[in-house]
Amino acid sequence: MEGLDRLQVYQAAQDLTKYMYRNALKELPSEEKWALTSKIRRAAVSIPANIAEGYGRYYYQETIRFCYLARGSLMELMSQKELSADQGFLSEDVVDVVTEKADTLLKLIHGYINYLKKCKCGINEPGSQHGIAEETEIYSIDNDDLEEMIE
């Protein structure tokens, strides 16, 4: 997938996910395997997955929506990182690296969303010619009709 791999936001998301798997998850205690570890794993994997799914939609509005989902998963991951750090599960070094990578990724997601919003083609986007439009006049009611409806 040459195009997707070129995206800095996707690369950064993959980098954070790999770091979580290779470093942070190993520090969590075994009793958290089915709770916190599982939640961290799902949130981390969800970030690049949503970026990839949005990219594959070839529709700016859909791509933006999936970027919002990726951002939400990133925030969820940061919440879990804070909890893990507060419980003493993660070393300070891992917390610092995760925080730095997450801050960078958040900026890249915001940048990508802004780029997509500026580039959206509107009427030229795939599927846009299939929109449904109704005439608003069919919903307007004059006063005589309104009085009849009330009586």
Describe this structure in words.
The chain has 151 residues and is mainly α. The relative contact order is 0.13. It has helices spanning 2-6, 8-27, 36-56, 60-86, 92-119, 143-150. It has one domain (2-150): de novo design (two linked rop proteins) (Up-down Bundle), CATH 1.20.1440.60. The protein has 6 helices and no strands. It is elongated. The termini are far apart.
Entry keywords:
single chain, 151 residues, mainly alpha, de novo design (two linked rop proteins), 6 helices
Q: Would you summarize the structure shown here?
A:
The chain has helices at about 1-5, 10-25, 35-55, 60-85, 90-120, 145-150. By secondary structure, it is mostly helical.
List the helices and strands and how they pair.
Blueprint: H1 2-6, H2 8-27, H3 36-56, H4 60-86, H5 92-119, H6 143-150
Strand percentage, roughly?
Answer: under 5%
How many domains, as an integer? 1
| Record field, number of beta strands | 0
Percentage of residues in helical conformation: over 70%
Secondary-structure-based class equals mainly alpha
Low-confidence stretches: 130-134
Q: What is the radius of gyration computed over CA atoms, rounded to a whole number of angstroms?
A: 23 Å
> Which whole number gives the mean pLDDT?
84
Q: What's the architecture, going by CATH?
A: Up-down Bundle
Question: What is the count of DSSP helices, taking H or I runs of 4+ residues?
Answer: 6
Q: Helices and strands, in N-to-C order?
A: HHHHHH
CATH topology: de novo design (two linked rop proteins)
Q: Name the overall outline.
A: elongated
